[in-house]
Design brief:
Layout lengths: L2 E5 L2 E4 L4 E8 L8 E6 L6 E6 L6 E3 L7 E6 L4 E6 L8 E8 L11 E4 L3 E6 L1
Parallel strand pairs: 2-11
Antiparallel strand pairs: 1-3, 3-8, 4-5, 4-9, 5-6, 7-8, 9-10, 9-11
Length: 124
């Protein structure tokens, strides 16, 4: 059974840092590009950041460049996103996803497996 479980969210203040974790099981993490998306209340789900299976390439939304970094530990079946200098506009539910098909990394439709999400709320 495939599972992706996000953790690390919560309520923080603007300027704070948070690290989200995505623990996976039921598939071979090392063979998947992994991404993080977020969805704010009343808005569409949007791409945040992704990392290729080998960890050799990463992709960032312009809104998080210089503030967020992604990493993976395939041995621990875990993907991380370090979020620094958080802003109120970063408030959203953050989802971890495993990319399952050829296609643009920023398109949710190209991701095969999804977690249930973790809420991050940034107060001003």
């Amino acid at each position: 059974q495939v599972r992706l479980v996000e953790s690390g969210g919560g309520l923080v203040q603007a300027g704070d840092s948070v690290r989200l974790s995505c623990s996976v099981s039921g598939f071979t993490l090392s063979t998947y590009t992994m991404g993080w998306f977020r969805q704010a209340s009343g808005k569409e789900r949007e791409f945040v950041i992704a990392i290729r299976s080998g960890g050799d390439s990463t992709y960032y939304a312009d809104s998080v460049k210089g503030r967020f970094t992604i990493s993976r530990d395939n041995a621990k079946n875990t993907v991380y996103v370090q979020m620094n200098n958080l802003r109120p506009e970063d408030t959203a539910v953050y989802y971890c996803a495993a990319k399952g098909s050829i296609g643009d990394y920023y398109r949710p439709g190209t991701y095969r497996f999804w977690g249930q999400g973790t809420q991050v709320t940034v107060s001003s």
